[in-house]
Design a protein that fits this description.
Layout lengths: L4 E5 L8 H16 L3 E4 L5 H12 L4 E6 L2 H4 L8 E5 L2 H11 L2 E4 L4 H15 L7 E4 L6 H12 L12 E3 L2 H12 L1
Parallel strand pairs: 1-2, 1-5, 2-3, 3-4, 5-6, 6-7
Helix pairs in contact: 1-2, 1-7
């Protein structure tokens, strides 16, 4: 069995509170200390850059996956264990999925929501059974959970959809959960 890899979806910006960056850094340190490889979007910006930098500073492995057209916009992260350049966002998401044993969703914007919805949809359609964990820093995940609950309540999704993901309240809780998943 190879190294346990965690695909992290999070913002290419820092958000409006420094707590988000503190959490992103703590996640990176925690992954490295536990010998878990980070798989992420490849940029050296925002929370994703903070997470990757913390993993590398603590001796962990990091695989970045970035579409060619974003290499300049997001300033690809130099010095990663591996940088994979793709031809499109869709190919990027397929690689992020393929390389992860579990998915962690930290605060972020539209790209983070896009990645999260797609990975949830693939799970709903039986394309994978990998764990998806949302980290609810400062209540960030609550509107997303509410949206899913409303979708179920209005008859657009079955109640089982709520079981496709977990929500934890802290970085420490997600690290504990990842340890349980890895076994």
């Amino acid at each position: 069995m190879g190294q346990f890899s965690v695909t992290v979806f999070c913002g290419a910006s820092f958000g409006g509170d420094e707590t988000y960056a503190v959490a992103a850094r703590a996640l990176g340190v925690g992954l490295a200390e536990r010998g878990m490889r980070l798989v992420f979007g490849g940029g050296n910006v925002g929370l994703m850059g903070t997470t990757a930098g913390a993993v590398m500073e603590h001796g962990g492995e990091v695989i970045g996956i970035i579409p060619d057209f974003l290499r300049q916009k997001e300033a690809e992260y130099a010095g990663l264990t591996e940088l994979i350049v793709t031809d499109s966002m869709h190919t990027r998401k397929r690689r992020l999925f393929a390389l992860g044993d579990a998915f962690v969703v930290m605060p972020g914007g539209l790209g983070t929501f896009d990645e999260t919805i797609e990975i949830l949809t693939w799970k709903q359609l039986g394309q994978h059974a990998k764990p998806i964990i949302l980290v609810d820093i400062l209540g960030w995940a609550q509107p997303f959970v509410h949206m899913i609950d409303e979708t179920i309540a209005r008859g657009f999704a079955r109640p089982e959809v709520r079981g496709l993901f977990e929500v934890v309240g802290s970085v420490e809780a997600v690290l504990v959960r990842l340890g349980e998943i890895r076994g």
